[in-house]
Design goal:
Blueprint: H1 2-7, E1 12-13, E2 16-17, H2 19-43, H3 48-59, H4 62-69, H5 75-96, H6 104-121
Antiparallel strand pairs: 1-2
Amino acid sequence: MVDRLINSVNWKFGKFNSLPLFFGTLMSLIDVIMMSSAKMVKEGTLSSSVGIPFIFIIYALEPLIFLKALNYEGIVITNLIWDLTSDILVTLQGIFVFGETLSPLRWIGVVFAMIAIVIFGYTDTL
């Protein structure tokens, strides 16, 4: 059923394949939930007796999504897009939810991560 739904959508925009970005974003959202829960346990706003089991349960979903993603793209691109997307989303969460900051130089790194996602989603060679 999931494969039928995935196959019913045109994931390509020109030569850009957005399906790896979809899977990367889905796995990254799990990272956001997991890492925010860990931060809340560390700060004491979420009890460890609730937070730690929740973190394990939510994080256990990621391999299932990753396996499904491998049906549509190789391990290299899937992992790179997931890692970069997670880096960006967790960074934004740290800034806007937890009040952390980045120096201008580190913001340049975030921009490079965004550029890399576009490059890895591009399906043609130079």
